[in-house]
Amino acid sequence: MLPIMAEIKHKEFNMHNKNITKMCMTIDDSNLITCSTDGSICIWKIKDAEGKKVILNDQFAYSDDILVNASDLKNKIENIVELKMRVNELERESKYQITQLMKSKEQQIQELNNNHSIVMKILENKNTEITKKHMADKSRLEMELNLLKDSHAQELEELEANYNKKLLHEYEKYDILQKELIKTNSELEKDMNKSEFEQNEKLQKIVDQYNVKLDEKDKNILKLKEQLIKDKQTMSDLMHKVEEDADREVLEKKANFVTKLRELKQINLNLRGELGSYKMKAKAASKEAEDLGSLIEKYEEDIAQLKVSVKNEEQTIIGLKKQIQVRDDIIEQKESRIFEEKLKMKDLEKQLLLTKENISELELTVEPLIMEIQEKQKTIENMESEMLDMTAVVKQMELRISQQRDKLNACGLELDKKEQTIRDVNRVVKNIQVDINSASEHYQNSAKLKDAVKDLFIKYGNTKTFGISKDEEHDTRMEFTRQRKFLEQSIISLKKRVNVCAKKDDSYSKIMEENMILIDTINKLRQELKQNHKKYENLKSILKIKESKNHTTTKQAKNNNLQKAITNLDTVEKPALGT
Where do the WD repeat units fall (predicted)? Predict the structure, then answer.
């Protein structure tokens, strides 16, 4: 039904680099085999045939003969002989290189063991020296501690004796002050009582004097009032008498009136003078009475002032009593404060003793710390020198690792060559399969099958060569596995060495942490030790980075080479199993 006019959905697969020369289906129509001019063969599985496949019986007999052309067999036999020769040469070279590698590695291991033993001896000697120094310092410090304890005990005894003496002296002073306070209080009370009694007596005397004076003044005023009343009565009597005499004498003594008028006028004038004098006396008496009233008022005011002053003095006395009570309270408070201050003084003295003890202990602790810091500085310097030695060793290891890398690269090139040979063998096997498939086309014609089998036999040789090649492949696999085990053992030993170095680094880091703790206690040496610590950490990080890079690169290269070898072995095993 060619050409196919219908459009069929298909997918393109670029499997061959050149044009396809032949295509063939298998007997059961399950696989399609294609060949190209570049010698590549591709086997395709056929699916979704919709029942068009050939159904073979279970008792179908396949031919045991191999159909090969004579020329192809000759070429393949020659290629197999060349490959065997090349494999033998490669095995000899690989054995020679492996022996050289073993010798070089053994020499390196011996050198490393010697270096390690030397370093261990140096470290042991340093450790013994450090322990001796430590024991000597310990004994010296114990002697100093004992001496300091004895001196401290003597000082404590002396301080206790001095303190007891001072306390007794202070207690005596306190007793004297208490007695003086009691005396002053008793004297003040006596003086207050005396002053109160004297002031009361003075007040009573003043009151009695003023009362006597008031009585005298009252008596004088009464006398003056009686005299005034008597004078008024006498004057009124005289006036009545004069009037009666005038009336009588007007009638009786008119003649004598003129004569006596002058006498009467004179008498009147005298009486008027007396009246004037009496009036003057009355005015003077009234003035004296007013003065006496003012004096009485002043006296009353003075009495009121005295009463006010007495009240004020009583208030002052009450205030003084209150002040005395307040002073007594203040004295009690002061005594309590003095007692509290004495207790505080005792506590302060105890604290001073404790501080002195702490200071002495700190001095005792600081001195060995300073000694330890000096020792640690020496150890740091020694560690820096050891680090320089380790860096030199690391550089040597890097050089050796670079040599090993070069050797591994050479081994990798040889492995690539072996892989190329294996690929050539696989290609030959594939050509054999193609020739077998082409010979299987003539299974119906026995003559052509015989010719094809003869050609294959001539081209590829007999079965002994294949058996020999299988034995050689088995030997090569055993050699590869042995090399692989040796490389794994060398990797494990290198890892152990790396772990030992890491443990040493951890011990060094612990020592540095202890140094940092001591540095925190002493502020003077803090900066120098921090700088040294930073330098050490930087060197450590650089070494770790270098080691990690070297380990990662070596591990990756070894893993890649091992994976390549395993894949090549798998590729070699698959066609062998197919054959």
Answer: 13-54
User: Which residues share a beta bridge with 32?
Assistant: 25, 44
Q: Is residue 426 part of a domain?
A: yes
Mean pLDDT across the stretch 463-475? Answer: 53
Q: Which residues contact 163 (CB under 8 A, 6 or more apart)?
A: 349
Question: pTM of the full predicted structure?
Answer: 0.21
Reported as a single tens digit per residue, the pLDDT across 363-378 is 676 677 677 777 777 7
Distances (CA, A) of 74 to 68, 71, 78, 447, 460: 10, 5, 6, 21, 6
Q: Is residue 80 part of a domain?
A: yes
Single-letter code of the amino acid located at 528: E
The reply to whether 341 falls in a domain is: no
Pairing, β 20-25 against β 41-45: unpaired
479 with 404, same domain? yes
The predicted structure's pLDDT at residue 52: 62
Which residues make beta-bridge pairs with 42? 34
CB-neighbour burial class of residue 40 (10 A; exposed 0-12, middle 13-18, buried 19+): middle
Task: Please list the residues that pair with 33 across neighbouring strands.
Answer: 24, 43
**What is the per-residue pLDDT for 553?**
57
* Per-residue pLDDT at 18 exceeds 70: yes
Nearest-angstrom CA–CA distance, 309 and 199: 11
Number of domains in the chain: 2
